[in-house]
Design a protein that fits this description.
Elements lengths: L1 H29 L9 H22 L4 H11 L11 H25 L1 H11 L14 H18 L3 H18 L7 H7 L6 H7 L4 H4 L9 H6 L9 H4 L15 H6 L13 H10 L9
The protein binds zinc ion (2 copies).
């Protein structure tokens, strides 16, 4: 069973990734939510080149990735679920839930610790918001996230299929909830109870730090609602809000070479613990809840 999973993993991942990216790209043309400010070719070329670079660096750095470690943990009896007797579906469901919580907490940490925010803000520096934004992460952030995920897998001992499912779903939802697509409002309202929608995650890409530091979930919207980081709509509406962060606002900043050096440039302002910038921004914006424009 685990050999089959490992053998099929690269194909499952690649087919799911390319299939969903193609669907989102078409959907963004058919029903866009916002007008584009930057030509697609500039952002897509650089964001997709970054994915190739990230994948190569990840594979060269770690001898084993999350699914492989789950298989190894099963063989050697490491971690919680390899030492307690629960039905496999319970182990799969609880593992996927806890992996999602871990990703949420890690995202909050990347906003809170100034040094980590320097890495993660590159994700926020994209000047438009579409499916490829969901792929735009600094290679060092990718390496740190994988280190954290491996630690969670070693401690939890989840079934390998749960880790594979979780990673494929996370990749798919990241493409979906960054997509520049116009979901009918009632559909968005309903979906928000079970999955992070593009309108929910777009708030997280607002230039206003109060909104940047909200809606940290990637898959499940529940953590934000339970733990008090949920903001329903942007104060200026989805069409009026500005995407990005205050730093890095030129087209040149969207190029791969500039993205890679962003962590070393300028102050680490705008993160969740940057009280000065949060205070200043929130007092300057309207206190009325944003209309869903
Ligand atoms: Zn973020
Ligand atoms: Zn995002």
């Amino acid at each position: 069973m685990s050999d089959t999973i490992l053998a099929a993993e690269p194909t499952i991942r690649l087919v799911a990734f390319l299939g969903i990216l193609a669907v989102m790209a078409q959907w963004e043309v058919a029903a866009p939510r916002r007008r584009r400010d930057i030509p697609r070719v500039v952002r897509w070329t650089n964001n997709l080149a970054l994915v190739v670079l990230d994948t190569a660096i990840l594979r060269l750095t770690f001898p084993i990735l999350a699914v492989g470690l789950a298989v190894m943990a099963e063989d050697r009896g490491w971690g919680l679920f390899n030492n307690i007797d629960v039905p496999v579906w319970v182990a799969i469901a609880v593992s996927m839930l806890l992996l999602d919580l871990a990703i949420y907490l890690q995202h909050v940490m990347f906003h809170a610790v100034p040094g980590l925010w320097r890495l993660h803000r590159m994700h926020h520096a994209d000047l438009d918001f579409d499916a490829t934004t969901g792929l735009r992460f600094h290679p060092v952030e990718i390496l740190i996230s994988m280190g954290i995920k491996l630690a969670v897998v070693a401690a939890l001992g989840p079934p390998a299929v749960a880790v594979l499912l979780f990673e494929v779903i996370l990749n798919a939802t990241a493409l979906f909830n960054h997509a520049n697509i116009d979901l009918p409002r009632p559909v968005d309202r309903f979906l928000r109870w079970i999955i992070v929608t593009p309108d929910m995650h777009r708030v997280h890409h607002s230039i206003d730090p109060r909104e940047t530091n909200s809606n940290f979930g990637f898959n499940l919207p529940w953590w934000d609602r339970l733990l008090g980081t949920y903001v329903a709509q942007p104060a200026k509406g989805h069409k009026g809000m500005m995407i990005g962060i205050k730093q890095f606002r030129t087209r040149r900043d969207l190029w791969l070479d500039r993205m890679l050096i962003q962590p070393f440039l300028g102050p680490a302002s705008g993160g969740a613990l940057d009280a000065r910038s949060n205070r200043k921004r929130s007092s300057s914006i309207s206190s009325k809840p944003g209309a869903d424009k």
